[in-house]
Known about the structure:
Distance between the termini of chain B: 18 Å
Shape of chain A: globular
Helix content of chain A: 40-55%
Strand content of chain B: under 5%
Number of domains of chain B: 1
Number of domains of chain A: 2
Pfam families (chain B): NrfD (PF03916)
Shape of chain B: globular
Radius of gyration of chain B: 23 Å
Strand order of the largest sheet of chain A: 10-1-12-11
GO molecular function, one term (chain A): 4 iron, 4 sulfur cluster binding
Keywords (chain A): 4Fe-4S, Electron transport, Iron, Iron-sulfur, Metal-binding, Repeat, Transport
Protein name (chain A): 4Fe-4S ferredoxin iron-sulfur binding domain protein
InterPro entries (chain A): 4Fe4S_Fe-S-bd (IPR017896), 4Fe4S_Fe_S_CS (IPR017900), ET_IronSulfur_Cluster-Binding (IPR050954), Ferredoxin_N (IPR031604)
Oligomer: heterodimer
CATH architecture of chain B: Up-down Bundle
Low-confidence stretches of chain A: 1-12, 65-143, 480-490
Mean pLDDT of chain B: 91
Order of helices and strands of chain B: HHHHHHHHHHHHHHHHHH
Number of strands of chain A: 13
Number of helices of chain A: 27
CATH class of chain B: Mainly Alpha
Radius of gyration of chain A: 28 Å
Largest sheet of chain B: none
Structural class of chain A: alpha+beta
Largest sheet of chain A: 4 strands, mixed
Strand content of chain A: 5-15%
CATH superfamily of chain B: Formate dehydrogenase/DMSO reductase domain
Bound molecules: iron/sulfur cluster
CATH topology of chain B: Formate dehydrogenase/DMSO reductase fold
Helix content of chain B: over 70%
Amino acid sequence: MSADDESFHPLGKEWESELETMLDDTEYDSDLGMEMAQDAMRVTKGELSEAEFHEKYHEDVMDEFGVDDRPTEEAYEAAQQEAKGTVGRMLDAFDGDGDQSRRETMKKMGVGAAVGLSAWGASAAPDASFGSTQEGDAADDDNDGLQWGMTIDLERCDGCLSCVSACSEENQLDQGVNWMYVLRHAEDGQTADDLGNHPAGGYENMLVRPCQHCTDAPCEKVCPTTARHTRDEDGLVLTDYDVCIGCRYCQVACPYGVNYFQWDEPDVAYEDIPSESDVLPDDLDPEDAVYSEYDDMGDRWVDGRAPRGVMSKCTMCPSHQDGRRGDEMVGMTACESACPPGAIQFGNVNDSASDPEKYASNPSRGRTLERLSLPSADEVEEELEDADGDDLEAVLDAVSFDGMGDDLVDNEHGLGILIALEITGEHMGEMGESEGTANLADYEQQVLDILEVVEDHGLDLGSQEVLADLRLADAPEEEEAEDENGDEDENGDEDEAEAEDDFEGPDEDDAQRLIEMFAGTAPSSFKLLEDFGTNPNIHYLGNEPGPNAEQVEGPVAYDSLELTDNRKDVLDDSTVTGGLY
Amino acid sequence: MSTKSPTEADILRPIKNTSKTYFILFAVAALALGIFLVGWAYQLYEGMSVTGLSDWGTGGGVTWGLYIGAFIWWVGIAHGGIILSAAVRLLGMDRYMPVARLAEMLTLAGLSAAGFYIIVHMGRPDRMVTSVLGHYHITVNNSPLVWDVTVITAYFVLTATYLGLTLRYDITRMRDDLPEIFSPIYKVMTLGYTKEEDDVIERMVWWVALAIIIMAPLLLHGGVIPWLFALLSTYPGWFGAIQGPQFLTIALTSAISGVILISYAFRRAYDWDHIITDDVFRGLLLWLGFFCLLFLWLQLQQLVSGSFSPTTAHEAATASKLSHPAYIVPITMVLGVLAFIFATTIRPALFTKARAIAAAVLVLVATLVEKTYFVVAGLWYPAFNIYEATPGDYFPSLIEMSSVLGTIGLVTLFFLAISKVVPVVELHAVEHLRGDHGHGHEDETHEHESEPEVKA
Ligand code: SF4
Ligand code: SF4
């Protein structure tokens, strides 16, 4: 760590100079940024107090960024509270008014300084890597443009293959062309029998494998024709079926094995794609199922099963994303909408309000939203009509919140979870900017509607008492407690008064705990083969398969759904062997 | 060793005489090519599913197979021919002058066969021009496949230029003895020829030879061809810096073998014992031994580094080499050839032309099998090896196998045809052998026998 090299930053000298370069690229004073970052580290180490820090930089920050009208004494007070110097708080101190968010300040300061300051957090968690710092920032910063991607909760996958089937129907793929593929794997020495259910509701050791739509896609790099390309507007990696020469180099270069060549005439003729498919409307123009608009190049044939002699792979449904099939399909893929446990979350991974980002940032919450079978607000309203009053007891008597999920202990928990979802929700009911539909946002909206009905009925869900009864806040302190305590008599009244006034609302930790009790946590997450530098856009929750992991039999067999697992079984029929082998 | 003195009539013989064997050979080669063309037509009609290929990953197969293996093989053969000829010119390895032109022609033929394979391998060969050339300015920055096409084309053009320039000298001098029906060709080839240009041409050819000898190892078989594979870090059987030198040594073994076979065929057909002497074969065989040694040495490097403390995926790739017949057999064959060549240096009496031919055939078979195994096994053992269907299966279909015979037929036809039009042995070589350049060939023979490796 920084103690024994000259670098102030826990990630070392190299990182520091990178930081400097980044700072140089911004319009603000990079020396100031570096100095601030350096002193920020000193605050973390206790060599400098926060108040001193603000004192020192107040003027500079004013000059440079034009904000910082928060009095330094206040910063001093803040430092006095059991300070866990976080970047956020430090930056908040520079915020002029409530309107200017921390993010804006960070932007104003320029990425470099902001990232530099976030070094602070890194020193608290020594193993925080550059990668994760960067990722955190990307997730925080909605300005990176649209990039479709997914969060896939492997611990929720029960291997039903609904997504594989749905993809195959949507795109009318040949047998064995499994753009979406689901497998179960076992580590060395394990067999399928050693694997069981996952407490989160799926099976252990599942892997759901679409194309990763890599930001640095090797398949695109090697293509001799540019047929394999990344769409500028949304980051999808697609194949132009009219340009591809079928050299198959993309399939060779892709580390994930997600490409499927069209070795012969596809089973379904182009014009029959909609009519043959169970999920496409029969009267759909095939063009609206397979062509895609490009800002600069007009329409290109990039979706649906490939014609003979060219390469295909999972496309993440550009025909949906382009709005050709209606706005309500933008932000949705066939596999996502087919997945019963909601393990696939598709959306703009650069937007923290999108499904995949919401889900990944708080998997317990995402799972909860997916698992609850929420009643409609109207149903709740109806039930409330028969309520015996407007206190908590009466509401809980009237409405059966326990019907929402089988694991719920009782009604109280049911209502508690709904409130907890609101408490923990950062973008309650919102969806990503570029999206026309989002599961989680819909569920959140439903939660909000239910809570509104309950509040309208007369129950104050923000009151300390109600929240305490639902275990979402500390109980209000009672008078007797103070009276008994002679030593603190003097201050007792003040404390009490303060307690009433100072009720700071529900306890987020309690809310989070309640959700976790219901849906469990997802302690690990990963991106597949990240060390090959592909920058995949699929974020997995669950355990990464080990280097010796081998596919074992899954819960549902491919042929039971009229799918083919191993394509060679089909292709071998046309191999010319003269009957000799 | 013949004491006959080589004459112009000798090198004109293929043009002037056509034997029954010629027609038989022509028919057999045409048949081989024809069979494959029928197979290819069927492949175009049905789709690539007629091959034994499939998708790697869940598809239980490999997406590149014999077509790509044979493509590399032909480029390899093509490769050495011109290097040999360039070495004659640059390094003064005059002993090989009589086979230099055959070697150049082998380069053109081999590159044509390789180019043909690129087309055969493709799912949509009809789009080659529009799709590849249309986006060349973009793809040339990133795609090793585009680099390949570029370098192979450049190489073909250089070789053709080289051959064309040196042919001007011969054609002008032997114009009267050449068949009248090809006169338009000769006219074009000797357009604007003057005696004064000989020196200029000589110098130009020297520079072209220099370009070739630098470009070939650095760019072609030590460069863009292995880079198709060696740059992909997700395939432990492919990835790494050793593939450049490894490909180059394999290419040179197969190329020398190819030259041995072609030279022997011409010598036999046209009684050229006094032109393509035993000595040439001895020398070529020694070179073959040298490159076999390098070939095996680099294989050993890979086996050792893949076994000592490899990653999981690399371990699987190496284990496959140590157990798969498509690796063990060719390596054993090359080892056998090396042992034989080594033995001939200790006991020269062990050398016979039949054995030299056998060695060349063994090496050619071994390199074809090894290259195909290399391609296929790379895809069998990727870093991401979780799929049950990985490693997949692959056995080439009859159409794929016939492509090898077909392209051999194509190359044979190329030689049969070209030998009717232009002399396949340089006039310079004849002049040289006659001692026009100042030293007789008896001396040379003597020197070579005592110290062949130095002189070679
Ligand atoms: S996973 Fe990545 S490399 Fe593979 S096909 Fe998809 S975008 Fe290309
Ligand atoms: S198969 Fe098609 S998309 Fe893939 S690399 Fe070749 S030309 Fe590009």
